[in-house]
Design a protein that fits this description.
This protein is mainly β and 118 residues long. It contains no helices and eleven strands.
Amino acid sequence: DVQLQASGGGLVQAGGSLRLSCAASGITFDDYAIGWFRQVPGKEREVVACSSSSDGTTYYADSVKGRFTISRDNAKNTVYLQMNSLKPEDTAVYYCAAKLPLRNYSYWGQGTQVTVSS
């Protein structure tokens, strides 16, 4: 079975930092792009950052550029999202997901809550 296990969420004050982890099993990790998404109740899920499977290309939403960093450790089948200078508007449930190139995201983790207090 494919599993993506997201962890690292919590409560932090504005300006603080958190590091999320997404540990994958059941897939050939190197073949998959990994993305981080977030969702607030009543709003659509939005992409936060992505890491490609092959050439190290990364993507960031404009709202997090310069504050968040996505990285992957293929030896540990894990992707990280380092979140610095957190703002209250970053409060959301964060999900990681995996996809093969040119495909839709097909595997999703369970989500981890991030709450940033002002």
